[in-house]
Design a protein that fits this description.
TIM Barrel, 11 strands, eight-stranded parallel beta barrel, two-stranded antiparallel sheet, globular
């Protein structure tokens, strides 16, 4: 399956596509059946940057040829802010491992539920420990959509492009430069939705809310300007802001007002468009809180506060609403409440990771090897008083990077069985979040601007 030259990749697509400055698919069904699996594997695992880059270019060019493109969700969120769209919450799914198959399951569920209102995302931290750079991630997502016959826009998001408060305090220019470089890399890869997280800079020791939020909104505005300066022609990137760090104290309406008033004032001076949504803290934490036996503690989400924050965001600032993080491990009965409380977007990650690892179909010998690798490589993260089960639960997300190719190469019947489990969960979420039958909204509000991939750039980021 792995090839070593560009010529070999050309042989892979021969008979199914014409090659020139773009790749034009001539046999769509044959391309899905006989080509895309080979291309995506080489886009991730080929030995040379040249072959990986060309494979990614072929995938992205093929997507355009087949009627799918990477897009910004900005138009839909503006409609939410104007009250023209309501009643559902957009699921944003972080995929840490088995990415091609998880993405395929999400696309299948979306097609079944007549919904294109879902987002693929990956956080800054996940990019690092899962070993998935933006150019790779977007190529795999597009390949999954091609495989499942999706047409129309695809939304890919950079999640928690977060400033490190510690690093910023030591060298703010260097830390800002690092995030700016990541933003540029992501936009080039087709991430036209980016969540800027400067909430780590909130300083609760200050005497008033404006001063507490000052670094948050000032640095957030600076990064917003950077995003806008890099936008492709006819694309308005959807940007998210954040007022409180997930896992810390719950957010308040007054904090939201202090952040938005300061942010808007700074940004207005430059004439740039601002954020389309704002992330808040209402009692959740990323991944949930593991108990000594490895199970997850119950969480009380402050839905009343979430409702007030979302309402203020929409009515006072024209935003789509509030964004809920750390939700995938919440009890099932909570999910239908989010659309009722002005939640425009909900971030889901660890719950799908748990489906993979805890599936009866996941090979036990591979899981044992991964867990051993966690102990060998991350024992320094084993905190005092933490049980072995808690340590494994908190660190097993990093196993996707350790065993990336082995997970990809699991037997096909294993991946199909796990994919069905994932698809059932996605079906449940689409229903509970009210995000079914939304294709008409997507068609009405999402711009069809298409950005052609650049082969040289794909190779340089391979």
């Amino acid at each position: 399956m792995k090839v070593s030259t560009a010529e070999a990749l050309i042989d892979v697509v021969a008979g199914y596509a014409d090659l020139g400055e773009e790749l034009s698919v001539t046999d769509s069904q044959g391309f899905r059946d006989s080509v895309i699996d080979k291309l995506v594997y080489n886009a991730v695992f080929a030995d040379t940057a040249e072959v990986r880059g060309i494979a990614r270019w072929m995938i992205k060019s093929a997507g355009l040829s087949l009627g799918l493109w990477l897009a910004s969700i900005q138009g839909l969120y503006e409609a939410m802010g104007l009250g023209e769209v309501s009643g559902y919450t957009v699921p944003a799914v972080n995929i840490r491992g088995m990415t091609y198959d998880v993405a395929r399951a999400l696309v299948r569920s979306g097609r079944k539920n007549n919904s294109s209102s879902f987002i693929f995302e990956i956080a800054k931290s996940e990019i690092e420990y899962t070993r998935q750079r933006p150019a790779e991630y977007s190529a795999v997502v597009i390949a999954a959509a091609i495989k499942e016959g999706h047409t129309g826009p695809l939304f890919i998001q950079g999640d928690h492009f977060q400033i490190s408060a510690k690093k910023y305090s030591i060298d703010p220019i260097k830390e800002l430069g690092f995030i700016k470089d990541l933003i540029k890399e992501a936009i080039i890869a087709g991430f036209y939705n980016i969540d800027i997280d400067t909430s780590t800079l909130v300083d609760l020791s200050k005497n008033n809310l404006e001063e507490q939020q000052r670094q948050n909104f000032e640095v957030g505005a600076e990064l917003t300007k950077h995003v806008r300066s890099l936008e492709p022609e006819n694309v308005t990137i959807s940007i998210g802001g954040e007022i409180g760090e997930v896992g810390e104290k719950n957010s308040t309406v007054n904090e939201l007002v202090a952040y938005m008033d300061g942010y808007t004032k700074v940004l207005l001076e430059s004439g740039f468009k601002g954020i389309s949504k704002v992330s808040v803290q209402t009692g959740t934490s990323h991944g949930g809180v593991p108990l000594p036996d490895g199970s997850i503690a119950n969480v009380a989400v402050d839905f009343d506060t979430l409702d007030k924050l979302g309402q203020t965001a929409r009515e006072k600032y024209g935003l789509s609403g509030a964004v809920q993080h750390g939700a995938s491990t919440l009890p099932d009965e909570m999910f239908d409440r989010f659309p009722k409380v002005n939640t425009s977007e909900i971030h889901l990650a660890t719950g799908f990771q748990n489906i993979l690892y805890d599936s009866s179909h996941f090979p036990s010998d591979l899981k044992e090897k991964i867990y051993k690798g966690l102990v060998d490589n991350f024992s320094s993260e084993h905190k005092d008083g933490q049980t072995e089960e808690q340590f494994i639960y908190k660190t097993r997300k990093k196993g996707f990077g350790l065993a990336k190719e082995e997970i990809w190469m699991m037997p096909e019947k294993t991946k199909v069985a796990i994919g069905k489990e994932l698809e059932r969960k996605f079906d449940f979420l689409f229903l509970k979040l009210g995000a079914i039958n939304t294709d008409a909204d997507i068609e009405k509000y999402i711009d069809s601007a298409k950005v052609q991939p650049d082969q040289k750039i794909e190779i340089s980021f391979a």
